[in-house]
Amino acid sequence: MQPHESISILLVEDNDGHAKLIERNLRKVNLLNPIVRARDGVEALEYLQGEAGEPITPPRLVLLDINMPRMDGFEVLRRIKSREDLRKTPVIMLTSTDSQEEIDRCYQSGANGYVSKPVNISTLGEKLLRLGLYLEIVELPAVA
Question: Fewer beta carbons within 10 Å, N or C terminal of the chain?
Answer without folding.
Answer: C
